[in-house]
């Protein structure tokens, strides 16, 4: 599974760099292509030549040492990698990454990276326990980074406790199973329609009714469905974030446009996931010219928009239908009502008043309500990890319907 995978190993300055050298050797023996960046502190422990000899690739140490005039090294390395591993990751580098600092070759490359990132911390037991380190690690979790937890044992500083870089053999195993999982893509041959973002309901050419949705949750779902091999149609209201690579993006503005687009793709869809925050009401009249202000109050008459999820539930044949519920109270009660009323297979409920959940954040706190009656309450997670859970559920619902990947 590791054969020819491109692994970018970022080595920062701790005594565990000797394990990073062993890791490089093991990865190369397993058939991976390994490129290494050393931080200035790592170079105090070991020279680039060690990693060059083990990886059979040139080693990068300095952002401004542009070895190839045709590319910008840190962008090129970031684009090249299938997986980026920071091992050992010192408290200092973890802090820089958590704060978006880009002051050396590793941190600059990391900011440019879109590949999955794994962080393998290694440090003194008390450093690892320090609230600042914990906070920085939780920020990185919000960014979607994964962690190889340090193991417990004798530390070079003389303490015994948690802080040792995981053994190279174990790290290779984790990488192996990561790529193995990646190769068992669950949604090959499936079409997944995801809606995301807000809708805008026009009052006149300069004003509209909308909401706080940024599209982050829906885009993360689209990205994960794509990663699992699906053909993804992403129907999005106006947002400021880039669409995941490889998805078919259809930009819409109003709820009516979203309705028409989703209905168009519904017949051919295997799965529809309705993450968008669709306006429930729109102005009864849309003015062609800017409405001039008058003395006194103004009243806008509103009418109901079409409930897209409800309509999909009515027309459902063999699609898996996933709805969201954005609530501020009585989460469970309202989510269950939506599950039944909209004939959905799964409702993803979030309390949008809770810190770390709902609109605009990089994390979410959701509870999944299934038709079977099962309820899965998830802790605070990055929206990318929430997306993974939702896609896992969708995959198992497809399997229940006898619609396995490729079938
Ligand atoms: O985009 P982010 O900033 O990341 O924020 C994510 C989110 C808060 C928007 C997301 O997690 C979320 O909760 N999405 C659903 C928002 C919503 O409109 O919820 P609702 O409870 O009002 O609607 C229930 C379901 O019906 C939703 O699946 C919605 O897409 C759908 N609906 C609602 C109204 C309508 N006219 N048509 C619909 O299809």
TrEMBL record:
Which amino acids does the record list as binding CTP? 280, 290, 324, 338, 342
Q: Domain Flavoprotein: where? A: 5-177
Q: Which keywords does this Swiss-Prot/TrEMBL entry list?
A: Decarboxylase, Flavoprotein, FMN, Ligase, Lyase, Magnesium, Metal-binding, Multifunctional enzyme
Q: What pathway annotation does it carry?
A: Cofactor biosynthesis; coenzyme A biosynthesis; CoA from (R)-pantothenate: step 2/5; Cofactor biosynthesis; coenzyme A biosynthesis; CoA from (R)-pantothenate: step 3/5
Q: Give positions of region: Phosphopantothenoylcysteine decarboxylase.
A: 1-191
Q: Where is the active site?
A: 157 (proton donor)
Required co-factor(s) are: Mg(2+); FMN
Positions of the region Phosphopantothenate--cysteine ligase? 192-407
Catalytic function, reaction form: N-[(R)-4-phosphopantothenoyl]-L-cysteine + H(+) = (R)-4'-phosphopantetheine + CO2; (R)-4'-phosphopantothenate + L-cysteine + CTP = N-[(R)-4-phosphopantothenoyl]-L-cysteine + CMP + diphosphate + H(+)
Boundaries of each DNA/pantothenate metabolism flavoprotein C-terminal domain copy? 188-396
What's its EC? Answer: 4.1.1.36, 6.3.2.5
Any single GO molecular-function term of the entry would be: phosphopantothenate--cysteine ligase activity
| Coiled-coil stretches | none
Give me the comment on cofactor binding: Binds 1 FMN per subunit.
Source taxon at top rank? Bacteria
* UniProt keyword Flavoprotein present: yes
Q: What does this protein do?
A: Catalyzes two sequential steps in the biosynthesis of coenzyme A. In the first step cysteine is conjugated to 4'-phosphopantothenate to form 4-phosphopantothenoylcysteine. In the second step the latter compound is decarboxylated to form 4'-phosphopantotheine.
HAMAP family to which the protein is assigned, alphabetical? CoaBC
In terms of NCBIfam families, this protein maps to: coaBC_dfp
**Membership in a protein family:** In the N-terminal section; belongs to the HFCD (homo-oligomeric flavin containing Cys decarboxylase) superfamily.
Full protein name = Coenzyme A biosynthesis bifunctional protein CoaBC
Organism, as annotated: Bacillus salipaludis
What is the name of the gene encoding this protein? coaBC
């Amino acid at each position: 599974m590791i054969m020819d995978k491109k692994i970018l190993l970022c080595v920062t300055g701790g005594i565990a760099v000797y394990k990073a050298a062993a890791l490089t050797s093991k990865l190369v023996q397993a058939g991976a292509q390994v490129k290494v960046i050393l931080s200035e502190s790592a170079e105090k422990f070991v020279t680039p030549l060690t990693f060059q000899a083990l990886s059979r690739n040139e080693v990068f140490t300095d952002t401004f040492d542009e070895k190839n005039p045709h590319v910008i090294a840190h962008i090129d390395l970031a684009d090249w990698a299938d997986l980026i591993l920071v091992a050992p990751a010192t408290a200092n580098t973890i802090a820089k990454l958590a704060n978006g600092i880009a002051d050396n070759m590793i941190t600059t490359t990391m900011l440019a990276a879109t590949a999955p990132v794994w962080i393998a911390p290694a440090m003194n037991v008390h450093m690892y326990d320090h609230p600042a380190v914990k906070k920085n690690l939780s920020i990185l979790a919000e960014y979607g980074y994964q962690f190889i937890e340090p193991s417990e044992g004798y530390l070079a500083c003389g303490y015994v406790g948690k802080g040792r870089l995981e053994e190279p053999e174990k790290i290779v195993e984790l990488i192996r199973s990561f790529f193995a999982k990646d190769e068992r893509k669950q949604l090959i041959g499936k079409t997944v329609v995801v809606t995301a973002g807000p809708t805008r309901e026009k009052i006149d050419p300069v004003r509209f009714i909308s909401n706080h949705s940024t599209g982050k949750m829906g885009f993360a779902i689209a990205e994960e469905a794509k990663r699992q091999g699906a053909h993804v149609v992403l129907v999005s209201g106006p947002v400021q974030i880039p669409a995941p690579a490889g998805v078919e993006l259809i930009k819409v503005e109003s709820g009516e446009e979203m309705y028409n687009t989703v209905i168009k793709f519904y017949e051919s869809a295997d799965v529809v996931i309705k993450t968008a925050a669709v306006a429930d009401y729109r102005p009864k009249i849309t003015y062609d010219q800017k409405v001039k202000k008058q003395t006194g109050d103004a009243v806008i008459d509103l009418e109901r928009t079409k409930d897209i999820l409800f309509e999909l539930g009515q027309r459902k044949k063999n699609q898996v239908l996933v709805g969201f519920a954005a609530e501020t109270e009585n989460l469970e009660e309202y989510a269950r009502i939506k599950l039944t009323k909209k004939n959905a297979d799964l409702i993803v409920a979030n309390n949008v008043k809770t810190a770390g959940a709902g609109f605009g954040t990089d994390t979410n706190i959701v509870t999944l309500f299934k038709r079977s009656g099962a309820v899965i309450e998830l802790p605070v997670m990055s929206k990318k990890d929430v997306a993974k859970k939702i896609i896992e559920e969708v995959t198992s619902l497809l399997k229940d319907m006898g619609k396995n990947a490729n079938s």
